[in-house]
Design a protein that fits this description.
Layout lengths: L7 H25 L5 H8 L1 H19 L1 H25 L12 H30 L4 H23 L4 H23 L3 H18 L11 H7 L3 E9 L2 E8 L21 E6 L2 E7 L4 H9 L14 E5 L5 H8 L4 E5 L4 H6 L16 E4 L3 H5 L6 E7 L18 H9 L1 E12 L6 H15 L9 E6 L2 E7 L5 H14 L2 E4 L18 H10 L30 H10 L2 H5 L3 H27 L10 H28 L1 H4 L2 H24 L6 H29 L5 H19 L2 H12 L4 H40 L1 H5 L6
Parallel strand pairs: 5-6, 5-8, 6-7, 8-9
Antiparallel strand pairs: 1-2, 2-3, 3-4, 9-11, 10-11, 10-12
């Protein structure tokens, strides 16, 4: 006889462990590959939920008879596979940069996410089986599922602040083992043997060692360690990433972006710093003041310091302090260093303080560990000079990276914090044809116009070095003396002029000579088309990024990508942003897999007697739970991305949004259980119209309100997010259990299928959301999601229709 006890605590624990695994997967994927691809990784990992629906739809009747064995077995499978699958995934030779010319990477990508989906498949089986086994307890089970998941997100944030990702992964494994033991005790299914098996698994893992999470061979850290004499000097972990320092006494590191080709002074001794395997600057030995000053004077980024004497300077995204050392060496009277990752200044001013003492002086340097815009929203004053360095990969892997520091609104904020003759200086990498340099020039132009400047071209200047540009945005029009100083600086160091207010085309393209003055033509086309010798090509997206679409590193247009794919040329594909290619491939894989997971169970399901599962009911089931999956994920991802600006870091935004949505959606689900079946239609109407009203209010006044609290502590900001999202999350938790309970009363054989449809829709929506957000913005994504919720009462229908 099947057990009647409901393992509510086990449901909460497996949900907490599963969501912790998902978030932890983003950290592990960031280390092994790139964190910009994390949303894509999670989208296909969620295929586990869709696969679970397929299995339960086909074999659920037999599994339901053996519910206890199936539940405990899947909990054990989750525990074992969390460690095993991450280990296997690291062995797959997936290289995102090779996707343009190596089509095998598509299969490696599919295999990677299929492997990572297995733990989630097991967890989803536990939850789906419970929903089918206890249909009368669906709202309560759904509530424990969501509340447990929200708690898992918060607990993981605490764990990541103290432990390495591999150790945190073991904690999720233990969560699965405890789920199995707790369920065995609750269901009275061999609790003793299950406890022994769980103990043996945990002991075996500890004896054999935890998985070694290492960056892929193509990442910066791996390449640095391949050099002769390189050795790992230190490693530290935190919420923002794993920070590692590489020392090389045999082949000295030489990191000098924008260095003049006429330079005579070598860089100071350096050690490379990496965050999650990606280069994050260098720790320099700046104790030789004369040599350090001579070195920094040879860099293109020294330009703004030649225009202002003793400037009070702010260095944004200061990292381990290289920009701070440069500012001090070039005459800054005081420096405010703003860095969102607290591990980096701790590294520079702690373990390596002897070498980096210049950047840690309390008298001249003030370190602020928050994002630049969060800092400026507080009690920040004004500056003579604001400096920011931008890094972007040449292959376009970072095209999906959300960056609120390079939007039009960000530039407007920077300008507000400059003194009357203050200057904003931004340096970054160049590519041919020019992309980032022209986009930031367009952004600066729009910011100046928004700030009331009528002739922005008179406030802008740009030079370029070998693979590096420097953009100056002046609060006041650049004087003749300023322009002459820029010309002298460029000529004496062999840098090319890109734009000056009184510049002639013949002054461009003199040192790093191109076939045509592409940089000047692009700048002139943006600022003064009459002076351009050639029209600006429409090949790349160089329009300014905004807070609604903060993707400043996405350059490939859809038309270019589709032409490159159609023609199949390796050179054309190589010019397409790699992240866009991966996003398109992932969306295709997700769509194909999801259709199979939905249509295959439909064809295998026996046709119920008495017409209880009519064709129209099946169609409505697909639409209702599919639309619900899209709408929930679109809103979730839109708020995760949008609130990165307010919370200052993706990890905080992800945790706060997931915790708020899942916990309060769980409470909404629990509340819906108390409603009579006859009231479900009315309750659903109230829920969707509440979602509409709250979203309208959010879009209208929320940005202004959040800006007022942006300078609060991180704990206060997280609390504000939780309170803000609570009402809409409560309403978002109501439609799913109401729909599922309605289905259980009309055609209960379709319950696991509906569970799978919802999971598959979540997979596709997670893959589609980044692509769609880049076209219609976060506001557009929210509008689409709200429209989906408004359609749910129509899709559910009325009881007598079934």
């Amino acid at each position: 006889m099947p057990p009647t006890a409901v393992p509510l605590a086990a449901i909460a624990l497996i949900s907490a462990s599963a969501l912790a695994y998902e978030i932890l997967l983003t950290r592990i994927f960031a280390i092994v590959h790139w964190h910009h691809l994390v949303a894509i990784a999670i989208s296909l990992a969620l295929l586990g939920y869709g696969a679970s629906g397929s299995v339960l739809a086909v074999a659920g009747a037999r599994l339901r008879v053996h519910f206890a064995a199936a539940f405990v077995g899947n909990a054990l499978l989750f525990a074992v596979s969390t460690l095993a699958c991450v280990t296997i995934a690291q062995q797959l030779p997936f290289d995102p940069q090779a996707l343009a010319w190596d089509y095998r990477q598509i299969f490696y990508l599919a295999a990677l996410f299929a492997v990572l989906a297995l733990p989630l498949f097991a967890a989803a089986n536990c939850i789906g089986l419970a929903l089918w086994r206890f249909p009368e307890r669906i709202p309560q089970l759904y509530a424990y599922d969501l509340i447990g998941a929200g708690a898992g997100a918060v607990v993981l944030l605490v764990i990541l602040a103290m432990l390495q990702p591999a150790t945190a992964l073991f904690v999720t494994c233990v969560g699965g083992l405890l789920t199995a033991v707790g369920a065995a005790i609750r269901l009275r299914w061999y609790p003793g043997p299950v406890t022994l098996v769980a103990t043996a698994i945990a002991g075996g893992v500890l004896l054999n060692g935890l998985p070694d999470v290492q960056p892929a061979p193509y990442k910066d850290l791996a390449r640095s360690l391949d050099a002769y004499g390189a050795e790992l000097d230190s490693t530290s972990a935190g919420v923002a990433g794993v920070v590692q320092v590489v020392r090389n006494e045999q082949v000295p590191l030489r990191h000098a972006p924008g260095m003049s080709l006429q330079a005579v002074q070598l860089p100071p001794p350096q050690q490379a710093v990496f965050v999650d395997g990606d280069a994050a600057g260098v720790l320099g030995d700046y104790r030789d003041e004369f040599g350090t000053q001579a070195y920094f004077r040879q860099l293109a980024a020294a330009l703004p310091f030649t225009l202002r004497e003793g400037p009070i300077t702010a260095v944004f995204n200061a990292g381990v302090g290289e920009g701070v050392a440069r500012a001090l060496a070039l005459g800054a009277s005081k420096v405010t260093a703003v860095e969102p990752n607290p591990q980096l200044p701790t590294l520079a001013c702690g373990t390596y303080r002897l070498d980096s003492a210049a950047v840690c002086g309390d008298r001249l340097v003030d370190w602020q560990t928050q994002s630049p815009r969060a800092y400026l929203a507080g009690e920040a004053g004004t500056f003579d000079l604001i400096v920011q360095s931008v890094d972007a990969d040449a292959s376009g892997v970072a095209a999906f990276k959300v960056d609120f520091d390079l939007t039009t609104e960000a530039f407007v904020t920077y300008l507000r914090h400059l003194t009357p003759r203050g200057v904003l200086s931004i340096d970054g990498p160049t590519r041919v044809p020019p992309r980032l340099s022209l986009r930031l020039l367009s952004t600066a132009r729009d910011a100046l116009l928004a700030s009331g400047v009528r002739q922005p071209a008179r406030h802008l200047a740009m030079i370029r070095a070998w693979q590096r540009f420097v953009l100056l945005v002046s609060q006041a029009p650049l004087s003749a003396a300023d322009q002459q100083g820029i010309r002298h600086f460029a000529a004496t160091r062999g840098f090319d002029l890109v734009w000056l207010p009184d510049m002639h085309a013949t002054e461009a393209n003199r040192f790093q000579v191109l076939n045509e003055p592409q940089f000047f033509n692009g700048a002139a086309a943006i600022l003064d088309p009459a002076r351009a010798t050639k029209a600006l090509p429409d090949r790349f997206r160089i329009e300014p990024a905004t807070d609604n679409r903060p993707y400043p590193l996405r350059f490939t247009r859809w038309s270019e990508a589709l032409v490159a794919i159609r023609d199949g040329g390796g050179e054309q594909l190589a010019s397409v942003d790699t992240a866009l290619l991966i996003g398109m491939v992932t969306l295709l894989l997700a769509a194909v897999a999801s259709l199979l997971l939905i249509l295959l169970p439909l064809s295998l399901l026996p046709r119920p007697a008495s017409g209880r599962a009519t064709t129209w009911l099946r169609v409505r089931t697909v639409l209702y739970f599919g639309v619900l999956g899209f709408a929930f994920l679109f809103l979730e991802l839109a708020w995760i991305e949008r609130l990165q600006l307010f919370l200052g870091h993706p990890v905080y935004a992800t945790t706060a949004v997931l915790a708020a949505l899942l916990v309060f959606a769980g409470l909404g689900s629990r509340w819906s259980q108390r409603r009579r079946d006859a009231d479900h239609g009315r309750t659903l109407h109230i829920a969707v119209f509440a979602i509409l009203a709250i979203n309208i209010a959010f879009l209208g006044w929320l940005p202004t309100v959040l800006e007022q609290f942006a300078g609060a502590s991180i704990a206060a900001r997280i609390a504000i997010v939780l309170v803000m999202l609570a009402p809409i999350a409560f309403a978002m938790g109501i439609p799913f259990p109401i729909g599922l309970r309605h289905l259980a009363g009309t055609a209960d054989a379709l319950v696991p299928w509906a569970w799978g449809i919802n999971g598959c829709a979540s997979v596709i929506s997670a893959a589609a959301a980044p692509l769609l957000a880049q076209e219609i913005g976060f506001t557009g994504l929210s509008i689409v999601a709200t429209a989906g919720y408004l359609s749910l009462p129509l899709l559910r229908g009325r009881d007598r229709e079934d």
